[in-house]
């Protein structure tokens, strides 16, 4: 993996990524898993699979979570998940929600974005090509995480997250920092002409996120999320965009396009200290 934006960290066998820019903030913890350091042993899930809806047993996946949290100093007992369905639902995670999705059953559905002001509660998003986005208000110390696949990106879920942080916690856009995580790059994210045109109609100002190469159509989902956030006033300098493509690096990162059904899942975590 070649990257200018991320640090590649190794603790025992666990390899994980962090955003160089986000590491500067003492109140914040975050980490992105790779395939390395877990106990899953099938071809498509080895070895750090954090996806519960795979062929790996729940015990195996929970052990991976435990190993990952040990390596990254995240609080395993407080891990809280969304309930991702490519929706634009956003939930504020309160004390009652802590641990839902991994340790206790979720009582919410269609939640692709989660936000909290609780300390030591890691929010986690699953992806395998889709775009994970993490948020933090550096003044008010509010954090969020969202799952932006093409549907979430088309519906501007990232912007809805920033708006929700503002509405609920009075966050100012200039205080929000973002990490747009490991996802499929414009090198590999080929889409139908129909979907390409649908995006182009809606985001006609964002020319640089569209590419046509050899009569094939490509979208830059990571850049679209960045441009949307800039569009509402999150400063460009506050937004880090991961420069690693999941499909090009499917030995290191789970990629749906590269591995197909049954593949493991990457976890993107953010937590207040
Ligand atoms: Zn690629």
Short description:
The chain has six helices and 15 strands. The protein is an alpha+beta fold. The model has no long low-confidence stretch (mean pLDDT 98).
Descriptive account of the structure:
This protein has 273 residues and is of the alpha+beta class. The chain has one domain (6-185, 224-272): CNF1/YfiH-like putative cysteine hydrolases, CATH 3.60.140. It is 22% helix and 26% strand. The chain is built from six helices and 15 strands. The strands form three sheets. It has a six-stranded mixed beta sheet. A six-stranded mixed beta sheet has the order 5-6-9-8-10-14. It has a three-stranded antiparallel beta sheet with strand order 11-13-12. It is globular. Zinc ion binds at residues 185, 187-188, 245, 247-248.
What Rg do the Cα atoms give?
A: 17 Å
Cα(first) to Cα(last) distance is 29 Å
Structural class: alpha+beta
What is the name of the CATH superfamily?
A: CNF1/YfiH-like putative cysteine hydrolases
Compute the number of structural domains.
1
CATH class equals Alpha Beta
The amount of helix comes to 10-25%
Q: Provide the β-strand percentage band.
A: 25-35%
The distinct ligands, each listed once, are: zinc ion
């Amino acid at each position: 993996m070649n990257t200018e934006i991320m640090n590649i960290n190794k603790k025992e066998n666990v390899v994980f990524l962090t955003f160089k820019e986000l590491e500067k903030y003492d109140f914040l913890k975050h980490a992105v898993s790779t395939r390395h350091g877990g106990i899953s042993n099938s071809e498509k899930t080895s070895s750090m699979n954090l996806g519960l809806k795979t062929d790996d047993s729940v015990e195996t996946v929970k052990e991976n979570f435990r190993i990952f949290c040990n390596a990254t100093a995240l609080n395993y007992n407080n891990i809280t998940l969304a309930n991702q369905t490519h929706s634009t639902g956003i939930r504020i995670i309160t004390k009652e929600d802590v641990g839902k999705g991994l340790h206790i059953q979720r009582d919410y559905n269609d939640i692709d974005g989660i936000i909290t002001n609780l300390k030591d509660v890691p929010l986690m998003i699953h992806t395998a090509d889709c775009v994970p986005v993490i948020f933090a208000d550096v003044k008010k110390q509010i954090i969020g995480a969202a799952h932006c696949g093409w549907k979430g990106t088309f519906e501007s879920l990232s912007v809805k997250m920033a708006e929700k942080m503002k509405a609920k916690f009075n966050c100012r856009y200039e205080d929000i920092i973002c990490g747009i995580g490991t996802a499929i790059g414009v090198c590999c994210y080929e889409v139908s002409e129909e979907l390409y045109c649908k995006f182009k109609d809606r985001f006609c100002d964002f020319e640089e996120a569209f590419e046509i190469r050899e009569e094939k159509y490509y979208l830059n989902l990571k850049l679209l999320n960045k441009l949307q956030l800039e569009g509402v006033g999150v400063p460009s300098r506050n937004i880090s965009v991961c420069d690693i493509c999941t499909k090009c690096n499917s030995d290191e990162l789970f990629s749906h396009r590269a591995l197909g059904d049954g593949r493991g899942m990457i976890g993107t975590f953010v937590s207040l200290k």
